[in-house]
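Good morning,

Both structures are done.
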Amino acid sequence: MRPFGVIRPHSAQRGKIYTGVLPAVIAAAVAVGGCQVSAAGPGRGNPASGHTPAPSASSGQKATGGPRSAQDRAAAAAATGEGTAQGAKPSPCPPVPGQPTGGSPRIMIVGDSITSGSSGDYTWQYRLYQHLRADGVSPQMVGPHDWLYDNVTRADGDCSYADPRFERANDAHWGMALWEEETAIRAKVATYRPDYLLELLGLDDLFWFLKTQSQMASYLAGFIDQARAASPHIRIVLGIIPPDIHTQHSTTFAASIGAFNNTISATASQLSTTASPIAVAQDAAGFNVAADTWDGTHPNANGEVKIAAGFADTLARRFGLGTPYPTPFPVLPTGPLTQPRLTASAGGNPGSALLSWTLAPGASGYYVFLKDVTAGGTAFKRLPWPLTPTQSPWTAGLLTSGHTYDFRLQACKGNDCGAYSNVVSVTAS
């Protein structure tokens, strides 16, 4: 009996059988250190003087912790597989039947890709919103964005939420950094008038832009000052940066994140006032990189719950808004939820079959499972390498001519595999 079908790498010769040993197809998602990088700006000046100098020719030097050059940023975006945060703003996502609308209080969530989410996600914003609604709170979510980042096409403007029936407005996008939001937040608060500002920023500043701890402290204080300049009585919840694959692999980076998280707590304590209280969410509590992310950085469904719970607990205990998140946390399915639709036909060459499938939102790879029914196979065998979304249609080769095979696919987002396709039967040519 011939071995089961062979996965071939994507090429312009789509549909052609590849014969020989199994080639390595690169897994579609790799762990990334931060979120997408965006345009650099000047470093914050002396906080005592309140003066921010204009950028100089040397302001992009990495040794100073200043913003990276455009070339560095482009390289970083390419390395992470993330698109540019700049450019035309996508159109708002259309409303859906059953989507609720809120009243009060007004909440604006500020964050990077950890908060924004990508194709097929619920997002931790969704988890928090649904929790508050269950508590009888009808918040009005506000902000300039309401879409996801498409992690496959690397573009903003995707609307494929796992459940779009929630208030999706926010101030979060892939690549947002604290240093740039410090100067932007005043206008946004003035425009969207939030009663509560929930912030989770800083990973990109430290990983991509190499900001120093003193700069980070200054940016955070400036962010708070600017938000209050637009709304003197605003209530602020600062999030702690959760661990990721890089804090696990680099003691230096782990120390940098730890130091900034300490700064977040210290700043909240120092700058909180009766008129504009500041609290810190313990959103990193119990966060497990392997179990709670789909690529080592970005939260999956279980990670979303833990981040949302940290903010929900702080809103409840510090501000009396809603109740603490119920425990124990549920263990939720991860990976793409949408079932790919698989079709198959005999291939154009002996011992082959041609597979085509619809794409699942967020799925960066598809594993092929097959069994030789004619030979009495009862269990599916998974081929060792995932196919990429661009490989449909794909030819399974090295099959036994005249034998009937059952095929199915499993959609995966990074490290998390989820929904299976339907099973199809085909007789190899």
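Second structure follows.
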Amino acid sequence: MALRTTNSRLSAAIAAALFVVVVVIYLTWHPGGNSPSTGSANPGGTNASGPGPNSVDLSNSQLSSVKVAPVEERDFPLEKEAVGSIDFNEYVSVQVFTPYQGRIIALFAEIGSDVKKGQTLFTIDSPDLLQAESTLIAAAGVLELDRKNLDRMRDLYTTRAVSQHDVEQATSDEQTAEGNLRAARDAVRIFGKGDADIDRIIADRLADPTLVVPSPITGRITARNGAPGLLVQPGSAPAPFTVADIDTMWMLANVTEADSPVFRVGQSLQVALDAFPGRVFEGKITAIGTTVDSSTRRVLLWSEIKDPQHELRSGMFANFVISLGQPMHSAAVPVDGVVREGDGTMTIWVTADRRRFTRRTVRIGEERDGYRQILDGVQPGELVATEGALLLSNALATASQ
């Protein structure tokens, strides 16, 4: 019995000694707990000589997947961007109505046609014009009769065949007829008739009810709702024609409520359109909405865009950029070198020896030409991972798990 107890104690002592030897050998060949030939991470930071809680050591094979470059300094313009659509400038867009009731006789323009100011758009058969011309013809006839009567009265007065009162009455009648004729000429002139047309109506004693409706401005036909035989009324929608001056167009944009305070009337802007890649149209802000849309929380903004070649079309999709001040000189890192972590923070990976990389939280700004502006967290000249930053973040996350 004593011999069995002694053997048990001896076996336990031998096992303990072997365990100590194994631990010593393991710690001797594996000081970091990982093979030196593979990438390693120590999120606990228990080994002072190994990587810290936010660091990753890369093996030789892993280094080929990561590119390193010093942090640059670049100019980042202070700009705001928004999207919008092209529309006609309503300040120089005119709905052309007939000034008097009538039926359309003919139309002389199509949608998309360019017209000059004064060019005939359509004609109507106008009873009002017919009445005005009839009054003109009658007034001209009365004046002619009164003038003959005045001449006769003057001849008779020389022989004392009539009294002075009769001459004065004839003079008054002639002057009244002249006033009536002038009023009748003005009434016909309102319909767009010139003096030559009026003189011809009087000479021919022929009333023409055809009313010509011209274009009030030079521009492009943007809508046509008239048709021959259609009865039209003054101001009754829809207008037979709509003409817009297309030398300038509008861009209507909805900007966010947060961005709206930085915009000012008169600010210059540049507009890019998908229809004209690589081209920039110049413009300026002409008006800013006074209300915020309750559903989208956006503010409507009007911009006037110069279009001397008449290339823009209503409804085109547009992007605009407006400069808010002088460019800002800041540290810059390629976009692939910045990682958005799961908690929303933005990080980069900094290295001093191109093998051990440390994650660092930064505050970012604008993005331009493939670079991200770094407002805080890194200094120009520091070495950072410009490619493979996401690989480093994934390696650290895997090691942590």
